[in-house]
């Protein structure tokens, strides 16, 4: 009963809400037949259906259903009919149960001829005998009908609505092509920006230091016979500048493909990230014992063979997410989990901070999204005010 009451409550709220909005739709039908208005209306009801069918509340979809205008109108009329029919059933069952529960104990204060129920129906209440027998029996029947009929009717209505608003194979293919086109453009832009950044780093940093080294060595060569102390000083400065240039060059190379991925694999690289994170971080690679952040390369067996491009995106995604958490979340702990299901690698980075992550404020999530979309992956950010924040990334890693 504990689990059935929330299901009945959600189902009843869903059906009553659908009944009210269906009645409003009939009044506003001339407006709703406009494709743009129908699409927005359908998008809102699709989100309601998805929340009801989901095992846990989900965030609303960002875009309205991508289906044709004809199918939207078909959904509108079918949804109005089913909403009215199913909603009336819910009102009759739940309404009579509530009305019976109210009238039975108060029969003595009600006018003669009052019946135990709403809508003028139900057994007549003529005394305590009928109230405690027929009245209680009627309440039990309508309560059972409410618990038994309302949740499945609500799920059926939600499934019908979701099915009618699901794109066809042709529409899915067209949407897929559009999405891939957008992500490829974003990937090319991101790649161009990355190349410009690398060029700028090399020009302003490493190249400038190499020029300084060459100038010092040239001056030292000219002063070799005349001023040995100056030569020694110039050689020392050239040596120091060479080390600085090498350090900067390593940093540039690390932003292209972290050497640790080649040396230790994805498992070892992520273990190093977890160890070096400013926030205590646990790492779970979906294998027994992999929750220890000191694990090494053998843990990759839980993930299978991962392409190099996917490894790099996974590494940069987790590194950026941990950096964001350290800068903005005020978190005390972070958790990183990777799981592999078929050709899909799922990454979850969770922190117990204050939440409220906003991609529009340049928190690094945009960079993560660009990298992931370039590989045809998906990014989902759940960060309610007060926390926690969870970034979920799914990457295709099939051969």
Summary, kept brief:
This protein has 399 residues and is α+β, with helices and mostly antiparallel strands. It has ten helices and five strands; from the N terminus they run ααααααααβαββαββ. It has three domains: 4-167, no CATH class; 183-256, Up-down Bundle (Single alpha-helices involved in coiled-coils or other helix-helix interfaces); 259-396, Heat Shock Protein 90, CATH 3.30.565.
Structure in words:
The protein is an alpha+beta fold and 399 residues long. Helices cover 63% and strands 8% of the residues. It is built from ten helices and five strands, in the order H-H-H-H-H-H-H-H-E-H-E-E-H-E-E. Helix 1 packs across helix 4 (69-103) and helix 6 packs antiparallel against helix 7 (228-256).
């Amino acid at each position: 009963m504990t689990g059935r009451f929330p299901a009945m409550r959600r189902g009843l709220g869903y059906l009553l809400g659908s009944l009210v909005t269906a009645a409003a739709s009939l009044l506003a039908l001339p407006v709703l037949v406009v494709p743009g208005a129908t699409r927005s209306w359908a998008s809102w009801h699709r989100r309601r259906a998805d929340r009801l069918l989901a095992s846990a509340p989900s965030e609303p979809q960002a875009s309205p259903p991508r289906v044709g205008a004809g199918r939207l109108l078909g959904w509108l009329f079918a949804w109005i009919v089913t909403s009215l029919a199913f909603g009336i059933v819910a009102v009759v069952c739940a309404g009579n149960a509530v009305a019976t529960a109210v009238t039975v104990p108060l029969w003595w204060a009600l006018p003669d001829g009052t019946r135990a129920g709403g809508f003028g129906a139900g057994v007549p209440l003529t005394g305590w005998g009928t109230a405690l027998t027929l009245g209680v029996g009627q309440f039990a029947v309508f309560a059972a009908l409410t618990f038994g009929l309302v949740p499945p009717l609500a799920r059926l209505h939600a499934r019908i609505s979701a099915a009618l608003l699901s794109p066809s194979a042709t529409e899915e293919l067209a949407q897929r092509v559009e999405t891939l086109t957008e992500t490829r453009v974003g990937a090319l832009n991101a790649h161009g920006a990355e190349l410009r950044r690398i060029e700028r780093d090399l020009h302003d940093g490493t190249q400038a230091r190499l020029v300084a080294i060459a100038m010092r060595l040239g001056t030292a060569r000219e002063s070799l016979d005349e001023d040995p102390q100056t030569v020694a000083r110039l050689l020392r400065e050239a040596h120091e500048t060479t080390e600085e240039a090498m350090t900067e060059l390593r940093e540039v190379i690390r932003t292209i493909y972290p050497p640790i991925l080649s040396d230790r694999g994805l498992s070892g690289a992520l273990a190093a990230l977890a160890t070096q994170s400013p926030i205590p971080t646990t790492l779970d690679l979906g294998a027994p014992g992999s929750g220890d952040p000191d694990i090494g390369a053998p843990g990759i067996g839980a993930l299978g063979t991962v392409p190099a491009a996917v490894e790099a995106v996974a590494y940069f995604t987790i590194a950026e997410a941990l950096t964001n958490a350290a800068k903005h979340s005020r978190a005390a702990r972070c958790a990183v989990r990777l799981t592999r299901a078929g050709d899909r690698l799922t990454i979850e980075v969770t922190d117990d901070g204050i939440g409220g992550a906003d991609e529009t404020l340049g928190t690094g999530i945009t960079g993560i999204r660009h990298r992931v979309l370039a590989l045809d992956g998906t990014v989902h950010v759940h960060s309610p005010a007060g926390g926690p924040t969870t970034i979920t990334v799914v990457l295709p890693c099939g051969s």
